[in-house]
Amino acid sequence: MTPTEFIAFYPEFSTASATLIAVKIAEAEFRVSDAWGDRRDTILALEVAANLADSPQGRMARVEPGPKRNIYSERLEREKRAFACAKNRIG
Question: Minimal CA–CA distance to 48: which of 69, 21, 18?
Answer without folding.
Answer: 21
